[in-house]
């Protein structure tokens, strides 16, 4: 798909990535448009699928979610059925923040898990994650400190 975005579209995307709660008037002011054309552009970006969704980001530590684990998962067989069952099950776990099928590692999936503490992680690992059919190996690493966390995508290449 060829993207046909101009500088104003890119500015709209940059602004919304930083704060999706902006009113249309605030967004229009920031990108130098009047409200009606700004709203039309946002709607077009939504309809095209470029804007996937709008969310509110929550602060983990304030909610008592103090443990983040990055879990490398190995599967016993590399078959579509095995992967499908794993992915469906992992998608049902609210503790899983992200799950990615990866290559170049000694694992098949890299999963980010957020829970209250080590005891909850232990329960989740043994009671849920390792019980998924096909999981043959698990290696966990734990977040000590987040150096950079960003939800924005780089858009400089579009300008």
Automatic annotation (TrEMBL):
One of its GO terms (biological process) is regulation of DNA-templated transcription. SMART domains: HTH_ASNC. CDD domains: HTH_ARSR. GO terms for cellular component: cytosol. Keywords: DNA-binding, Transcription, Transcription regulation. GO terms for molecular function: sequence-specific DNA binding. It comes from the Bacteria. The keyword Ribonucleoprotein does not apply. Gene3D superfamilies: 3.30.70.920, Winged helix-like DNA-binding domain superfamily/Winged helix DNA-binding domain (1.10.10.10). It comes from Marinomonas aquimarina. The gene is lrp_5. Residues 5-66 form the HTH asnC-type domain. This is Leucine-responsive regulatory protein. PROSITE patterns: HTH_ASNC_1, HTH_ASNC_2.
């Amino acid at each position: 798909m060829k993207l046909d975005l101009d500088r104003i579209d890119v500015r709209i995307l940059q602004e919304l990535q930083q704060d999706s709660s902006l009113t249309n008037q605030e967004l229009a002011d920031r990108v130098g448009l009047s409200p009606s054309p700004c709203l039309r552009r946002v709607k077009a970006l939504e309809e095209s699928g470029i804007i996937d969704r709008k969310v509110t980001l929550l602060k983990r530590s304030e909610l008592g979610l103090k443990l983040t684990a990055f879990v490398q998962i190995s599967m016993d067989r590399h078959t579509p059925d095995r992967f499908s069952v794993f992915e469906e099950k992992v998608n049902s776990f609210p503790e899983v923040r992200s799950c990615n099928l990866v290559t170049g590692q000694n694992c098949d999936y890299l999963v980010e898990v957020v829970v209250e503490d080590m005891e909850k992680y232990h329960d989740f690992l043994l009671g849920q994650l390792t019980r998924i059919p096909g999981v043959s190996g698990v290696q966990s690493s734990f977040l000590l400190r987040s150096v950079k966390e960003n939800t924005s995508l780089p858009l400089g290449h579009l300008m």
